[in-house]
Structures are given as structure tokens and as C-alpha cells.
Amino acid sequence: MPDTPPRGQEHAVTIYTDGGADPNPGPGGWGAVLAHPASGVVQELRGGEAHTTNNRMELTAAIRALEALRQPCRVEMHTDSQYLRRGITEWLPGWIARGWRRKDGELQNEDLWRRLADAVARHDVRWTWVKGHAGDPRNERADQLATAAVREQRAAAGKVAGAAGGAAAAAPPEHEVFLRVSMTPRGGGWAALLRGAAGERVLSGGLPPAAAATSNALDLAAAAAALEALPAGASVAVHTVSDYLRHGASRWLPAWRQRGWKTQEGGHVANRALWERLAAALATHRVTWPDVKGLEIEELDRLAPIAKSAANGKPLSAAP
After folding, report:
1. Among this protein's residues, is 19 annotated catalytic?
2. Is 58 among the catalytic positions?
3. Which of 181, 207, 226, 241 could form a disulfide with 177 if both were Cys (CB 3.0 to 4.6 A apart)?
4. Residue 18 designated active-site
5. What is the set of domains in the chain, with CATH numbers?
6. CA 250 vs CA 37, 68, 238, 310: distances in Å
7. Do 46 and 148 meet the contact criterion of CB atoms below 8 Å apart?
8. Is 143 annotated as catalytic?
9. CA separation, residue 239 to residues 195, 223, 267, 300 (Å)
10. What's phi and psi for 249, nearest 5 deg?
11. How confident is the model over 286-312, as pLDDT tens digits?
12. Catalytic status, residue 124
């Protein structure tokens, strides 16, 4: 941030943060975008750890962003983590009063909560929750920075393993699945390419507007239909650009089911019926979710017109 910004708004800063681990726990990354409205200067930060959790990376992103400020500031802090926002705005005073303990026991990530409390004390911070992957450019940019940091951690781990001789390379999956969805005024469509030793085949289907078709619902329908079409017990790599699908299937499902299909904030899980269908399919397959965001995937390009055709009422095959 500038040392001598214009008078009047010299100490106002807007910050967007994000963090995560893939899988959770696993290689993690965090990202932060710091914007100084008075001067137009934007600063980007990112980093990661070899083995961490989603929550630790969310906390670290906020900590490192605040610690990057060279003087006390009025900060508009934007985060898509309710754990971070509610922790600092609602739960922190009680933790401190109880000697850094929760009502029902040990406080997880105490080291980072203490560090964040110290960082916040130096500034005037207003915390705002933003919905993840909802199109906010700077929130999306923070996510991109965190995702890049995760990839860097994976690459570093791979180099270390290679230098040490490493373990035997994991067997490739028996099947690959590529998913693409499309939304049109007539409804939504999905397409799935299934590849295995016997060759390739394509499935497609759709949901009309009356079925509350959304991109998220279509991603779930596509994944469930593809897995249901493959032999039980098979190993499958599912390629999707949807973080909602990939993170939900690989991270969030167990907690949702344990809470009776409620979110961490207590609301009902959206698209529950489709998630339940997908969970049943996941239980009978060994599924991995490669991160393909930002990559050029020829198969996804091939599926685009098929998904659009399905959205317009002309699927190759209906979803089971």
C-alpha cells in the first residue's frame, strides 16, 4: 500500500481473502487482494503450506493481508468463510474470556486466532461475508490466487518425492469422465464424456426451467448420471470446472450428512436430492477430482455444443 496516499481517504483499504486445502486436510493455499481506493493501487498476496486445512488457510489469508498494511487502516474485509467472519465478530470475545477455549472444549487453530486478534487490534476492520463463486471479480481473484498456491504446494511435494526416489506411481484410473453444462432460455443441459479401455461414449440430459435448473444442479446431475453408467467398484477421474461439484463431493458431503443435510450456518443444503443421488454413486466407485480450472481441456470443448443441444430439448440420452 502507498506510503503517502491522498488526504481524506489515506487509510481506507478494501481486502478480499480466500483459502483452502485440496483435499482437506492436504496441500493448502491462500490468496488476498488489497485495494487502495484513493490511489487505485491493488496488491496481490498468496502463499501455502504442504499440509493444512481449509480453515487454517482462510485464517492465514486474513492475517497476512492485515500484516501487510504498514500503518493503521480502516479496512473493509471481504471473505466467503463464515468460520472466519463469525469467529472474529461473534465468538472471539467468549473464547478470550474462557482462556482461549470453546464452551465445549479445546479451540482449534488457537495459534492463528491469537495472531489474527493481534492483527485486527491494529486496525478498524469491518467484516463482510460474500458468497463464494458468485461473480465478484476480486473475490474470484482471491480464489484464483489460493488455487494457484495449492498447485504450487503439490508441485513442490512432487519434486521432493522425485528427488527422494518417491513411491511407485499411482495406477491410472480405469475410467475418465469429462463434464460440461449449458444454460439457455429453454432450460439447462449437461453432457458427459466417458472414457475407458473399451473406448468413449457420450451421455447428455437436461432440466427444464420448471425443475429449477441451475448450473450447480446440472453439474450434479451430470456427475451422478456418468458414475451410474460405469461399473461398480471402478476407479474414476472426474474432470469438471465446477468448484461447487468438486469441493462438495470431495470435502463437504460427509459434514452435510452428519448434520442432517444442513450447512455449517444451519441452512438447508441446496440441491439435496441430487447430492443424495451423487453420494450413492460415489459410494460404489473410487473417484478422484483433478483440478482443471484454467487448463485447456479439449474434451470439454467438444462437449459444449452437446450440452447446449440438451438444454434446448435435444439430449443424446436422458438422465437415469
Report:
1. yes
2. yes
3. 226
4. yes
5. 12-160 (3.30.420.10), 175-311 (3.30.420.10)
6. 38, 33, 11, 27
7. yes
8. yes
9. 11, 10, 29, 9
10. -70, -35
11. 999 988 776 778 888 899 999 999 988
12. no
